Structure formats: structure tokens, C-alpha cells
Amino acid sequence: MEDYTILEQKLALSFHDKSLLLRALTHRSFLNENPDTVIEDNERLEFLGDAVLDFVVGAYLYHRYPEMDEGGLTSLRAALVRTETLADFARQWQLGACMRLGFGEEESGGRERAPLLCAGFEAVIGAVFLDQGLDCVHQLMNPLLAPMLEAIMDASLHKDAKSEFQVWAQAHYNITPHYEVVAAVGPDHAKTFTVQVLIGNDVWGEGDGRSKQAAAQNAAAEAMEKAEARDLQ
After folding, report:
1. What is the CATH number of the domain that holds 182?
2. Pairing with 162, which of 50, 100, 106, 178 sits 20 to 30 Å away (CA)?
3. Exactly one of 41, 43, 50, 84 is catalytic; which is it?
4. CATH number at residue 70
5. Which of 41, 105, 122, 222 is catalytic?
6. For residue range 39-70, what is the model confidence (pLDDT) as tens digits?
7. pLDDT of 76-123, one tens digit each?
8. Do residues 78 and 157 touch, judged by C-beta distance below 8 A?
9. End-of-domain residue from the set 155, 178, 204
């Protein structure tokens, strides 16, 4: 069974243009090892899906919280479209098993890597938008967004984690945390950054993101979880 057919069944969709979905599932590492493949990689669809998701999630929040101000809506949207969240959505669709990866990428655990899953999810959304339209994207996203939004609100993941961790670090260590970019992978238009947050020489958290700022926020959120767990001991 073709990879795209498995995903179609999972999503209860039938694509008019199967090549769109196949392209969305094709990582550039697959093309590097299979240069005769006529399907291009998923990076252009990833670019489109990123924009579609920003709109769909923004519209969802606008209607869900009619009294919330712009700042609150922006924070919630950022939490819902961050790398880890989209990777979690991809796992719910079992997207990793459907991706077409090069041997090296697969051997290194690519099917479970959050940046790759995030990019694949965005590419599939871009393909759905082109083939099925915006209403279909809404129908696919709404069941994912509702429980994730509840979890984000319960855990306060939409708050400014960097500010929270700075306050905690200064209160406990009298030191301001600092952030270091430890990796940057992917093409220029879709680069994923990995940032660590440190107190002195000790790493307290690490996060990925499509910008250095987003990666730093994710690192700070992980650090806050560690800090709160320590406070409870």
C-alpha cells in the first residue's frame, strides 16, 4: 500500500491529486538518495502549510475567545503552532511512518524527530489546502486544536516562559539565565533552530523552533518544568 493511501485512510480523505500528498510526504533526504525520483521534496508545501496554519489557528482562537485581546490571542497561537505542538499533531496522525526518508535520515531516528514531523505536518496541511480547500483544513484541525488548547491553558504554556524563568533564576541563584544557539538545520526559508538555556554553566532546558526566539521560549518552558519539579521536592 502506498504511503499516501495509508494517510488518506487515517484522515478519511481522498486526494484528487495524489502527487500533492506524495510530495508532502517526501523529505529532501529521500531525493538525495533517489535522484531519479520525479516528485519534488516537501519544502514548498511546508512553506505554504505554515501560512495556512497561522490563519486557521488564528481564526479558531478569534471565534473561541471573543473577548481576548490581541496579545493573548498571539501567545496562544504561538503555543499552538510551535514545533513540538505540530510534531504532536503529526504523531496523532502517525505521520512519521508515512514519510519518505533517505536511509541515513531514517537510521538516525528521523521519523521521531520533532522538526521533521513538524515540517511534514505543515507540508500535508499545504497539500490539503491546495487539493481540498480551506474548509477541509478547518475540519482536520479543529479536533486537534480543542484538546491541545485545553492542555496549553492548564499548563500555562502560552505564557512568556523566558520572563518566568528569569524571575525564578534570579530569585534562586541571583543570576540571569543566558541562551545559546546550539544547532540550525534546514533550508534558509524553513530553518529550525535548537537553543539551550543555561544558568551559569548548567543547561536547564533545550528547545527547537522556527526562529531563535521561538526556540528560546521552548527551552525556557522546559527549564520552568524542571524548576517547578525541583521546588516540589
Report:
1. 3.30.160.20
2. 50
3. 50
4. 1.10.1520.10
5. 122
6. 899 999 999 999 999 999 999 999 999 998 88
7. 888 899 888 999 999 999 999 999 999 888 888 889 988 899 999 999
8. no
9. 155
